[in-house]
Each structure stands twice: as structure tokens, then as C-alpha cells.
Amino acid sequence: MSGQESESDTTLNEIERIDKEYVFGTWSFQSEVNPTEIVHTDGVTFTDANGNEYIDFSGQLMCSNLGHSAERVTEAVSEQINDTAYVAPGFTTEARAKLGKKLAAVTPGDLSKTFFSTSGTEAVEAAIKIARFYTGKQKIISRYRSYHGATYGSISVTGDPRRLAAEPGIPGTIKAPDPYAYGSTLDPMQSLDYIEEMLKLEGDTIAAVLVEPIVGSNGILVPPNEYLPRLKEIAHEHGALLVCDEVMAGFGRTGEWFGCDLFDVEPDIMTMAKGLTGAYQPLGATIVSSEIAEYFEDTMFCHGHTYSGHPAAVAAGLAAVETYQSENLIEQAREAGEYLETRLDDLAKKHPSVGDTRGIGLFRGIELTKNSKKRVPFGTREDKVSKGSTVVDEVASKAYGNGVYVANMINTLIIAPPLTITNAEIDDAVTALDSALKVSDNAMEEGLME
Ligand code: PMP
After folding, report:
1. 336 lies in the same domain as 318
2. Which among 76, 105, 116, 254 could bridge 315 via Cys, Cβ 3.0 to 4.6 Å?
3. Alpha helices, H only, 351-422
């Protein structure tokens, strides 16, 4: 109900109170939403209305890959808006054509033609439709520990509990187990055998197998090297396409352009967003192989949006991709990632509640446990949906109090800073986490005494 104040409202400033009253907070009990007004971003930091500065150790929503001072991108956007603010998708702009060509160059192998949208979820919606049109089949296999977006098709192929409120969702979606070495009863390659079995048992009905090559918000899961190549093989053996959702893993996050590059796998369709513009503009993209592109020469491409290829968004995308290249940010992420790994290992040695540290490049997770032998999580996937807050939230909130913003999901802290982060900034952030992890260490000890 509008106009009602909860106790926490008293700590909000006027803007934050207005926002809380009139704007929905995402994925939250609205009574618990306490928006913080941000007034400035710079480099790898952001500043709130009280003048407190924070290290952005998660690149906001794992999307600010370029940091917050990418002038080439801001200039490209403002020039574009001043020049040609908007044209319908039937027209084109220089940036749209050039970005299409660039994406064909930086994505693996034969991926060649792009459909532009404005978000990750729309990129996935397009991938689902294209896979269905092209194969003439309907079903999509995806995995339980996955997130592919909030709109109906994407939330239906999403495996994590965010899907539950939208179920049964669109027809023809099937979920498979994941390569989750730390927490699953199946070992990663066994989970792949399971998918192979599903493909056999479903007969010739599967349009695509859709995966995040490195699982992002569901815990930063890196599969064994043989996993993705074998997944492509078994999908193709059964006439299904491989769709890689690179919305979070793409654009240097892993120290390669794309997650699938780590395994030398070329998907049939790839989805992108987030790092595509480094979050300077909302832009999603779905790129397909030349064979799939060719199919639509004489078959209608039944898809489109008003803002498909929006001039300012593609201008941001083009300038962002040029920035990754000219600033060698992919290599930089690889090196910074190696340093980050050593620092997270330090935390794992020191804190009993750190069950696992994992990841690659600047895409890493710290999974917490209240019992390291039995690997018991502090909060389950279901807790997160029903109760909202878990011990991991408290650790993240303590880190925030120490000047470091770190995202968290279910039982894992997610570290995905701008690729521009320095070792000294990593050290500062790790110091703040070091102190915050005492919260989970203490919670673990209290549990042991129960
Ligand atoms: N796919 C993946 C892998 C994602 O991580 C996300 C967002 N976190 C999405 C799709 C959806 O992107 P968006 O929020 O831009 O719709």
C-alpha cells in the first residue's frame, strides 16, 4: 500500500522514500526493498548520496565490464543521440552495420548474423524462437542451475527458483542436472550422461540444448574441459542445436571473449547482453551460424522489436567492443583473474565457512558452508525465494558496510568486477571481504554448538 512507512524507511532519504513508494524493487518483498540513491560512478567505484564510496566488486549486475569511466562509449552514445536519436529497425545506422560485422568477427567460427534486442532475456527469447523455427521442433533442454531471463520464454527455460512463480510457463521446456562438482550428488560428467539419456528418450523432438557455458548467477560453475565439446556432440547427434547463453560470461569476463572460447566450442546460436555495451546502454544480441542465417533467406524471420538495433544502444555496443580491443581488456582480465584467484585462496584458507572458491578470470564465486565436511549450505535455493534473507546476504551486507559491493545468490558471493580493476583494488576489496566473512564463520560456530 502506498504511503505506508516501515521502520527501515526512517533511514531512507527523500529520493529513496519516493522511489520505494512508487517503483517496484525487482525480485523482492516490496516491504524489504530499501533502495540506495547513487549519485556518481567512476572507475571501479560508485558513490551514494551520503558521499560513501564503494568498490564495485560485482560490476553492478555482473555487467559493468568496462568500469564506469569508459569515455569512448559515453561519447559515442551522446554523439549518436545528437545525430540520429532513433530510426525504425527497417532503417540502419553506421554503428548497427559495423557492430553486426564486429560481432561476427569476435564470436567463434561461423557465427555470422545478429538479431539485436534490448536485454539478455530478449536475446534468449529470440534464440528459443529461432531454434524452433529452424529445426521445426519445439522442446528446449536447459539446466536446473541456470538463469536465462524474466520474460515468459526465458523464465520457462530458467532452472533456478525464480521460475517457480511463473510456472508452468511456456510448453516444451525440460530441465537437466548441472555440472556442479561441489554441491551435486552427480559428478559433472555424469550430469552430461543424464542429458544424453534425455536426448535419447525424448526422441526427435528437441530443438535445442541451452546452457550458460560458465553458470553465472547460480553459483559460477565451471565445467570440466571435456563437458561443452561433448555436449555439442550429443546435441548434434540427436538433431538438436547448441545454444550458449553468454549474457553474463561474455565479453572478457572469463579472460576470453566468450565462455565457450575456453573450450573451443562454437555454438549454433549465442546470446549476449550485459558486457556487450558494458551496461552503458541496454542492448541484447542473438547471433546465429551462417547455416541458420541462410534458412531465413526464404523463410520469414517472424520476430522484431521497436527498439531492435536502437541507434544509441548499438553505438554503445560498437564503442564497447572497440574498447575491449584497443585497451586489451580481455588479456587484462585473464591476468587480474589469476591474481584474484590467489587472493580468494587466501580467504578460503583463513575462513572455515568458505566451502569452495571457484571460477575463472574475473568471474568467481565464494560458496559458504555451515558444515565444511558435509558441505551444508547456509541457505537453500528455496529459502531464498520464501524467506528472502540468508547468512550470505548478511556477509554481503557487512562487506557493503566495509565499502565493497558484492552480489550474492543463494549461497554464493559472486565476484565479477570491471575488467579494468587493478591488483591494489582487488586487495582493498579482499580486505573488506576478509572482515565480512567473520559473520559466516560466527554463524558456523553457533551452528556447531547447537
Ligand atoms: N542470461 C543470463 C546468463 C543472465 O545472467 C541474465 C541476467 N542476469 C539473463 C540471461 C537475462 O538478462 P536481462 O536481465 O538483461 O534480461
Report:
1. no
2. 76
3. 381-387, 391-401
